[in-house]
Amino acid sequence: MAKQAWIYGRKAIAGFLGVSERTVARWLDEPEDFNFPALRVGGRWAAHPDQLARWMAGRELVSA
Questions:
Q1: Dist. CA 60–CA 41, nearest whole Å
Q2: What is the pTM of this model?
Q3: What's the confidence (pLDDT) of residue 29?
Q4: Could you say which of 1.10.10, 3.30.310, 3.30.110, 1.10.3470 is the CATH number of the domain covering 7-63?
Q5: pLDDT in tens, 8-58
Q6: More exposed terminus of the chain, fewer Cβ within 10 Å: N or C?
């Protein structure tokens, strides 16, 4: 199985998740409410696709 590369930047993270950049910004700005799986790397946000997919799946289960 090939390793997936990290995703860099709010725009790319939003595109991966199928949400707006504004939504990602809100998730990042309120870490205690959303526990969004991203971190700052050199002034940019970075996230791993596997972690994002698991986080999104968990949100869908909670909101259903």
A1: 28
A2: 0.85
A3: 95
A4: 1.10.10
A5: 999 999 999 999 999 999 999 998 899 999 999 999 999 999 999 999 999
A6: N
Q: How far is it, in rounded angstroms, from Cα 60 to Cα 39? A: 22
Among residues 35, 11, 32, the alpha carbon closest in space to that of 23 is found at 11
Cβ atoms within 10 Å, residue 45: 19
**Spatial separation of the C-alpha atoms in residues 47 and 10, rounded to whole Å:** 9
Task: Specify whether the CB–CB gap between 36 and 14 falls below 8 A.
Answer: no
The DSSP bridge pattern shows strands 7-8 and 39-41 to be unpaired
Q: What share of the chain is helix, strand, coil (3-state, %, to 5)?
A: 55, 15, 30
